Amino acid sequence: MKHINLVIIFTFLALFSCEKKESNTAILMEKLAESTQSWNGDTLPSYPEGQPKVTILKASIPPKAKLEMHEHLVINAGLLLKGELTVIDEFGNRLELKAGDTIIELVNTFHYGINEGTETAEIVVFYAGDDKTPITKIKE
Considering its fold, how many domains does the chain have in total? Predict the structure, then answer.
């Protein structure tokens, strides 16, 4: 009986004297963007019929570089990883982005981006379309 009591006492002491260690295994989810509209307020179009296709691109835009006037033919969204980027649509609306900002891009509206900053801008863009529709069309 004495042996059982000692086991219980040692077990009790072990449980309450152990230091709790912090665990860094917690998974955190943070919503970065969610919208039914692009950044200028236009409602996003319906997804096209056909075989879905997802494309993910990373663009590096040097300081003072300007992209060509273009339009996207499918829904897309991006995350600016580094630097600054200004997006200007064909009507003169402007969106200023800095590292960490998200963008729900324009669809079927001509626009361009320009890096007015001093470091290369890096943006990852996710396109959701179909296997027959180009993701981007340059204005002629």
Answer: 1
The predicted pLDDT at position 24 comes to: 81
Is residue 56, in this structure, part of any structural domain at all? yes
User: For the domain that residue 104 is a member of, what is the CATH number?
Assistant: 2.60.120.10
Q: Strand (E) positions, the chain?
A: 52-61, 70-72, 75-82, 84-89, 94-98, 102-104, 111-114, 121-130, 136-138
pLDDT cut 90: percent of the chain above it = 81
Tens of pLDDT, residue by residue over 14-47, are 444 555 556 688 999 999 999 999 999 999 999 9
Q: Order of strands across the sheet with 94-98?
A: 94-98, 84-89, 111-114, 70-72, 136-138
| Tokens representing residue 29 in the block | 């989810």
Residue 126 one-letter amino acid: F
